[in-house]
Amino acid sequence: MEFNVYNQSRKGQPFKQTCVQVLKELDCDFVGLALQNSNGPDVSWHYAAGNRNDKYKRITVRYGKGIAGKVISTGRPMKIEDFPNNILGKALEYPIMLAENLRFAFAVPIQFKVVLKGVLLVGNRTTQPISESDQQTILDAAKKLEKELNSSI
């Protein structure tokens, strides 16, 4: 399974646009899309909206590590509240949270041809948590990304 789509700017536009759309719709601070690399189990962040810098592009985590790796390995959404308090493990294990100075986040898995291969993360830098209705909007956006990902590769 090759994820060459994120190396081609024209084909990657729908993913970036979806991130921007979710950012505006939810009035949140950050939206990011991570994809599992095609040549191994590592997970990298490829698209973001509301980012403060480009550090997300250099973040790669092992399968099962970090918020992206954990969401892909479990296949379940993950919620982080009041980061870095009340987390499992150390804060350094959540590089996207540190790089973007996020306090609250909600991340959901994205499937590629029935295999979990991506994560959509929405986060806030303030003390505003991600509401239940916003979580449903995030799940809907993930389904839209799944369709775009499966149709473009």
Automatic annotation (TrEMBL):
<protein>
    <submittedName>
        <fullName>GAF domain-containing protein</fullName>
    </submittedName>
</protein>
<dbReference type="InterPro" id="IPR003018">
    <property type="entry name" value="GAF"/>
</dbReference>
<dbReference type="Pfam" id="PF01590">
    <property type="entry name" value="GAF"/>
</dbReference>
<dbReference type="InterPro" id="IPR029016">
    <property type="entry name" value="GAF-like_dom_sf"/>
</dbReference>
<feature type="domain" description="GAF">
    <location>
        <begin position="15"/>
        <end position="146"/>
    </location>
</feature>
